[in-house]
Amino acid sequence: MKVVVVGGGIIGLAHAYQAAKAGHEVTLLERDSKAEGASVRNFGMVWPIGQPLGERRALALRSRDLWIQIAQELEIPFRQCGSYHLAHHPSELQALEQFCALAGPEVAEIHGPEEVFRQSPDLRPEGLLGAMWSPHELSVDPRITCAMYAKGLQAKLGVQIRFNTTAHEITENRVVHRHGVEEADHVFVCSGHVLHHLFSDLLTEKGIRLCKLEMLRARWNAPVPQPGPHLCAGLTLLHYESFAPLPALPAVRDRWQETAPDALEAGVHILVAQHPDGTLTIGDSHEYGTSFDITSNQRVQAVIERELDRFLPADRWSVFERWTGQYAKCASEPYVVIPLTPSTTLVNGVGGHGMTISQALAEQVVKQRLPQSTAV
Fold this sequence. Notes:
Blueprint (H helix, E strand, L loop, with lengths): L1 E5 L3 H12 L3 E5 L15 E2 L8 H20 L4 E2 L2 E5 L2 H14 L5 E3 L1 H7 L10 E5 L3 E2 L2 H16 L2 E3 L4 E5 L2 E4 L2 E4 L2 E4 L10 H6 L2 E13 L9 E3 L16 H11 L1 H5 L5 E4 L4 E5 L3 E3 L8 H12 L7 E14 L5 E6 L2 E5 L5 H16 L7
Parallel strand pairs: 1-2, 1-13, 2-9, 5-15, 13-21
Antiparallel strand pairs: 3-8, 4-8, 5-7, 6-7, 10-11, 11-12, 14-17, 14-18, 14-19, 15-16, 16-17, 20-21
């Protein structure tokens, strides 16, 4: 079968990989000269700990395993780094303990301050009560991963990738683009945050909207021996669905409402990804709508830096880049897979967990939508 994938972000790349591994002839169309959307503006975190226990966590863990396999096959650098959720208040530590009791030791465990400082010696010691350690998180560099993924698909799996090629129209077995027409037995539309172009009315009906993020990149002011685990703190407990059932969560929210209402208003929670080149990717905030000002919000950026300083002292790092990210999120579902026709599938609305679930989601969708008996 001839398969066309529209969109060169991580979701599109993953679908191209799975279709090619199944033996199909694959062409990927990307409207820009390289991936420029959510896939390159994020942390590069493969983050199973943020997915609710059950099927979605299983999907994230399968995706993690595929990431390791694919990264090795396509020569994409990655780290198995794990993550720390830091607790600076009894309510936060109680919530983390409740999660560990619910999830079991194979998912996460509580570490005392001494062990936390051993892995992350630059943390602020004042007030740290402990942290939840999860060993399952990975780190990739979002600024190079999509480019290296595309290069590997071309070199090792024979995928044809056409950059600067916008798909204008998709009909049964046919994709019209600026350079001509692609005939296809199946089309996967993975257009990410570009909601105003292909199937825009359908995306609106499904409740998919945009989220704007404030992001920063910093460097350590003094060299560190090696990058440590992903880091986050109390506000993160209020962000991910995986923590929603915890009995201690209302007390956590009440505390933050008293101490940092501006952070809650802006949807701020702090994640820190550490990179081998000595830089840190830091964020983020969440503003939902259909379009946004392209400039960064200085007030929200200041809130992010203030909250980061609570656990990673400001004299240890210096910001040298600021930008905004965008992703498409469905209000009612973790992702949207729509069989438009027997030969066209729309995949969108993955929100902020595209890096985390992309590989397994694509594996699942390709198996469901492509007749495996036709693979060669």
